[in-house]
Amino acid sequence: MSSDIRVVRSTCDRQENRSLASEPQAEPVVFVVFGASGDLATRKLMPALYDLFICGRLPETFCVLGAARTQLSDEHFRRAAEQGLQADSDRDLSRLDEFCDRLYYQAIKYDSRSSYDTLAGKLASLEKTKGIGGNRVYYLAVPPTLYTSIVENLGKSGLAEQGDKGIGWRRIIIEKPFGSDLNSALYLDRAVHEHFDEDQIFRIDHYLAKDTVQNVLVFRLANAIFEPIWNRHFIEHVSITASETLGVEQRAGYYEQAGVIRDMFQNHMLQLLALTAMEPPTLFEAERVRDEKVKVLRSLRPLPKDKLHDHLVLGQYGPGNLEGKTLAGYRQEPGVAPDSLTATYARMQLFIDNWRWRGVPFYLTSGKRMTRKKTEIVVQFKEVPHSVFNNFLGEHSTANRLVIGIQPDQSISLTFQTKSPGVGFQLQPVSMYFDYKSDFAQTPKLDAYAKVLLDCLLGDQLLFWRQDGVEQSWSFLTPILEGCETCPDRADRLQIYPSASAGPDVLL
Ligand code: BG6
Q1: Residue 471, C-beta contacts closer than 8 angstroms, at least 6 positions apart
Q2: Is 205 near ligand 1, meaning CB less than 6 Å away?
C-alpha cells in the first residue's frame, strides 16, 4: 500500500513568469520537408509546425516547402495538411487558413540532380517574394536509404552552402536510424559531412525533447539532496523501461531489418541511460552536456561475446488477446516473414565502468505489444546498512525506490518507510508523489517534435545527437547485434511472448 503526499508548487517560481517576449525568436526561414506526403510529415511535422505557429514561436515570415515524389499542386498539399491537422479534435484551428497559406509544394525525384535545380529555383523565388533572407532547414522525413542521395544532391546543387557568403544559414535534420551498425553510421556521417558541417547537422531523437526526460537532469542537478547519493554507494540497480502496447503497425519493411535494439536501444534507451548516469556538466549547454553523455557511452562495458545471453533476453510478440479482441502475432503482421527472427522485445543488463557506477547493474527493457505503455526510470536504492528494527521485521526492510515516470505517467515518486498508525509496531512503505499534469496544469505544452524543430530553428544543438555519441552507441551495440544475428541457436533464444502481456519470462 502507498499513500500520496501532494507536492505543493512554489508560487514564486521565477521561470513560470517568464513571458514569451523574453524567449529567443526564430529568424525568417523556409522549412523544406523531404517526404512531405508521408506519414511522419502528416502525423508529426505539420502538427508540430502548426502548434509552433499558433504559439507565436515561428516568425511571421516563414513558409514550408513540401517535396516528395508524388505530383501535387500547392493547393492539394495545403488541403492534405489541413485534413491532417483537423484530425485532432483538441487542436485550436483558429489560424488554420493563415498557416496553410504558407505551405508550398514541389515534386521531386530524390536521385535526380535536375530536380534539385528546380527546387533551388522554387526556393529562390519563394524567398524573394516572401522576403526571407535565405535561411533554410532541410528535414529528411524519408526512408534512411534515401539520406545519402538527398544530401549529395543538396550539396552538389549548392543548396548546403551557407556562412560567409551572406546567403543565410542552412541546416539539415536527420531522423534516426543513423545507420544500422557502426560502419553504416560512419559511412552516412562521411556522406553528410562532405556537404554539411557538424553545426549544420541536427540528428533528432524525439525522446530528448520530452519534458520528463529533460527533467531527469533538472531533478538530479537543480536539487542538492539527490546527487550525493546518486552513485554505487547508495544505488543497488537502475531499471530503464520503455514498453509499448502498439505492435509494428505498418512499418514492417523497416522494422524487420531494425528490430528493437536498433529501433529503441541505439537511440532512446541509451539516451535515457546517459542522462541518468552522466556526470554533471559545468553548464547546461549543448557541447558540455553532450561531452558528458558521450563519456557514459564510452564507459559501457562490452557484453561478453561468449556469455551474451547471460546479459540479454530477446523476445518476439506472438498472438494474444486484449479485452476480447484477438491481436495478431508479429509473424502474422503484414510484410513480416512468417519465420521472422526479428526481436520486438529486449532486456539487457549492462554496466558502466567508471568511478561512480562500477558494479551497479543497469537494466534496459523495451518491447512492443506489452500490457501497457510505460516509459520510466527506476532507481532502486540499497537497504539500510543495519536495520534497528530487525527484531520486528527480520533482516530485510524495504529499500527506498525512486521512480521517474516519463510517459504516460509524468511523475516522480519516492518510496520510503513509515510507521503504521496504531499500538503495534509495523512499518509500511508509502510514497511521495509529484504529478506533472496536475501540478503544471496551466503550462502550455509543446509536443516533443515541436520543441526539437524550434531548437533547430534557433540553432540550439542541446537536444540532438552529436556524431561521437552516435558512434559510441553503435560501438557498444554492433558486436551485440552481430553476436545475436549469427548465433547458431538464434531461433531458440528468441522467446515468443503473448501480445498484451508483460513480455517473456525473463531470467536476468
Ligand atoms: C520511435 C520508434 O523512435 O519511437 C517506434 O521507431 C516507437 O518504434 C517510438 O514506437 C516510441 O516513441 P514514443 O514517444 O511513443 O515512446
Answers
A1: 182, 185, 186, 189
A2: no
Mean local confidence (pLDDT), 208-231 = 94
Sheet order of strands, 29-34 included: 103-107, 62-68, 29-34, 136-140, 170-175, 201-204, 464-465
Quickly count: other Cβ atoms within 10 Å of residue 262's Cβ: 22
Task: Kindly give the distance from the C-alpha atom of residue 207 to the centroid of ligand 1, in angstroms, as a whole number.
Answer: 9
Question: What spacing in Å lies between the alpha carbon of 61 and ligand 1's midpoint?
Answer: 32
> Where, residue-wise, is CATH 3.30.360.10 in the chain?
208-445+471-498
Residue nearest to atom 14 of ligand 1 (CA): 207
Q: Is the CB of 175 under 6 A from ligand 1?
A: no
Domain 29-175: homologous superfamily in CATH = NAD(P)-binding Rossmann-like Domain (3.40.50.720)
Task: Note every long-range contact of 146-150, with CB atoms under 8 Å and residues 24 or more positions apart, other chains counting.
Answer: 146/34, 146/35, 146/110, 147/174, 147/188, 147/191, 147/192, 148/187, 148/188, 148/191, 148/192, 149/110, 149/111, 150/34, 150/110
Residue 7 has what pLDDT? 45
Q: Worst-scoring range by mean pLDDT, 5-9, 289-293, 298-302, 478-482?
A: 5-9
May I ask the CATH class of domain 208-445+471-498? alpha beta
The rounded distance, in Å, linking the Cα atoms of 120 and 382 is 61
Residues of the chain with CATH 3.40.50.720: 29-175
Residue 444: pLDDT band by 50, 70, 90 thresholds? low
Question: Ligand 1 in contact with 181 (CB < 6 A)?
Answer: no
Between strands 374-381 and 401-407, the pairing is: antiparallel
Ligand 1 atom index nearest CA of 207: 14
